[in-house]
Amino acid sequence: MNASDGREIDTAAPPSRIRANDASRLSPLYPPTRVLPFAVQTAEDLERRAREALEMANAYRTRAEQESDREREELRAKIAEEASQLRQRVEAEARSENATKLAELIRAFQKAEAARAKRSELALRQLACELAKHLIGRELQTTPESILDIAKQAIPTISSRGRVTIRCTASHAQILRDAVQELERELADGGGLGIVADEGLSKDALIFETEGGDYDVTPSRRLSALSEDYANRAQDAS
Fold first, then answer.
1. How would you write 126-179 as a 3-class SS string?
2. For 113-167, what is each residue's pLDDT tens digit?
C-alpha cells in the first residue's frame, strides 16, 4: 500500500510498530495536540463534579445530623414534659389518696372517741346507780322516815284506779300508816289506801298494788334495773 508521499506502508505490521507520524495520518480528526487538552479538561470537570458531589453529600449529612439533633431534642423535651406531667398526676393521686385515708382515719377516730365517751358516760351513770343504792340503803337504816318521801315520789308514776295497797316491811308500814291521810291526798283517785306489812320483802321494799296492776318502786330494784340498762347500752356502744 502506498502512502500519499509515495512511500509504501506495511499494513501487515502490528500496530505497535507504526510510527507516531503514521498514527497521526490514521487519525486526522484527533491529533495529539487536541486530545491531551481535552483529557485534562475532562479530568478537571470530573474532579470538580466529584468535589461538588462530595460537598453536597456533606451538606446533606450535616443537614440530616442537624435535623436528627433537633428531633432528638424535641423528643427529649417531649419525654421530659410527659414524665413531669405523669409525676404531677401521680403526686396528685397520692395526695388525694392520702387525704382520703386521713379523712377515713379521722372519721374512725371520731367514731371510736364518741363510743368511748358514750361508754364512759354510761359507766359513770352505772356507778352513780350503785352509789345511790348504797346511800339510800344507809339513809333508810339511819332515818326510816325517809320511806315516806320515797312513797310520795312514787305515787305520780302509778295509775291509781280504785283502792291502792302499799306493801312494805313492818317498820316502814307503821311509818306509812301514821301518814296515811297525807298519802291519800297525793292519790288522784279517792278509792282508799291500805298499808300491808310483809316481812318476806327486802328492807327497802315498796310495792303499790292497784286494780290496774302492781308497781314495784323499791329503790334498790329500780336502781339495779337502771344500772343493768346502762351496762347493756355500754356493751352495745363498744
1. HHHHHHHHHHHHHHHHHCCCHHHHHHHHHHHHCCCCCCEEEEECHHHHHHHHHC
2. 888 898 899 999 999 999 998 999 899 889 999 999 999 988 888 866 678 899 9
What count of other Cβ atoms lies within 10 Å of the Cβ of residue 72? 10
* pLDDT tens digits along 33-51: 555 666 667 777 777 887 8
Q: Which domain holds residue 199?
A: 116-237
Say whether 11 sits in a helix, a strand or coil.
coil
In a domain, 179, yes or no: yes
- Cell digits for 148? 315516806
C-alpha gyration radius of the chain: 65
Angle ∠(90,94,97) on CA atoms, nearest 5: 135
CB 158 within 8 A of CB 193: no
**Domains contained in the chain, number:** 1
* Cell digits of residue 58: 456533606
Q: What share of the chain is helix, strand, coil (3-state, %, to 5)?
A: 70, 10, 20
